Amino acid sequence: MTKQFPEGFLWGGATAANQFEGAWDVDGRGPATSDTSRSVSPEERKTMAGSEFTSPMTLEKVQFALSDTEGLYPKRWGSDFYHRYKEDIALMAEMGFKTFRLSIAWSRIFPKGDEQEPNEAGLAFYDRVFDELAKYGIEPLVTLSHYEFPLHLVTEYGGWKNRKVIDFFVHYAKTVFNRYKGKVRYWLTFNEINILGMTGYLSGGLLFEDEKLHLDEMYQAVHHQFVASSLATKAAHEIDPDNKVGMMLARMEAYPATCHPDDIMEAIHKDHENLFYADVQVRGKYPSYMKRFFKEHQIELKFEQGDEEVLRQYPVDFMSFSYYMTSIIRSPKSQKDGEATAGNLIFGEANPYLESSDWGWQIDPVGLRVTLNKLYDRYQVPLMVVENGLGALDVLEEDKAIHDAYRIDYLEKHIQQMYEAIEDGVELIGYTPWGCIDLVSASTSEMSKRYGFVYVDADDQGNGSFDRYRKDSFFWYKDVIASNGASIL
User: Fold this and answer.
1) Looking at 253, 266, 349, 387, which residue is catalytic?
2) Residues annotated as region Disordered (predicted)?
3) 194 lies in a domain?
4) Is pLDDT of 444 > 90?
5) pTM to 2 decimal places
6) What is the chain's alpha carbon radius of gyration, rounded to the nearest angstrom?
7) Which residues are CB-contacts of 345 (< 8 A; sequence separation ≥ 6)?
8) Alpha-carbon distance values, 410 to 113, 268, 392, 398, 417 (Å)
9) Looking at 192, 217, 253, 266, which residue is catalytic?
């Protein structure tokens, strides 16, 4: 009997408007938080210093970025999908994509974020994209908010810590649900919602004039996103019963450094810290362990009447997550002697049993199977791996070939572990590896860190033809999809 993935499995790839689309000031799009993301130096990249992921933003920094005529802001041009979407979708179709994960730029639909009437040019652009996908039978998987946020909502309202933003988001969500009814069935509300604690500005619009991240404001903003997500889920089901709405988590699988009970307990705490967001969005209520966390950190969240009922009545239909690596967790009580390594927005001890990428991200395919089993055991809802991949320094040869055997090796081993998880009983319904066509890095705003099956001829400064070239992994992934995984199983 041939080993292969379940019939109807959603093979595809993933991008985000703020890193891929470009055309940041075209056709009425308003400025967003991602437009202030400057390119950081190689020295800064080692610790992500200077990145909006780790440096709390102030109003002064925002205003400087908008007036800066000399700095580089690569997310403003991205990979120019806005003008090349037909070419890019044709490449996806050539690979055999069943689904394509993309995001809608909120400020392209509502330039300021708080208007009543949408920007028709922005709506029309996504109509064209969805129609082009439909031409090839590719199912859109659409994220409503992916590391960008209308700047007007930052400067005028203070971002997601202001409860008024819930209504603005729900109005935006209803607008696109109605507009794209019948064209889009799969939706995600907030990308990697748990990263708001690190990207308080990019995804939450939070400004900190003392340049410190305040936990009380961060968790209040998260609460408002929880409520907004539930209300959007309610609206999606009312507008089109065929709609399926999911949550998206940056999964941070952590192994205890030793079998010392303190290390085991520390790993449990890290899981709570990570899975809290999924517990609320999938189970529909705040988990009991957060009561202690809020008490110990003197955090008092402001709930309005009806919030708990909304969360309970309108949980998500499925769970999606990103997975890039695992980390090692050691209790502060035990001696720390491991080497630190940078990962998917986190730092932890290096695992001596694993290899690392060019950026120090440790490669752990079995960890994906571990994560899939843990998440399915906990939530019992369909799962999708909507980000996974290897950022690497690809080389465009003179004959325009790109030989990325390292990417093929990485993805093949992860896909094999996904199959094993399905055999374990996990209901995994889709896989969209990250940056299927090269795009600008979320954390460091560089093009050099490439993930795609398709090479984009552009450098970190935005120089180049932006022409597309198929990598070796392009043809490999085409075979994987055509055989429904059998070619590597």
Assistant:
1) 387
2) 24-46
3) yes
4) no
5) 0.95
6) 21
7) 53, 195, 198, 199, 250, 443
8) 40, 28, 11, 25, 11
9) 192
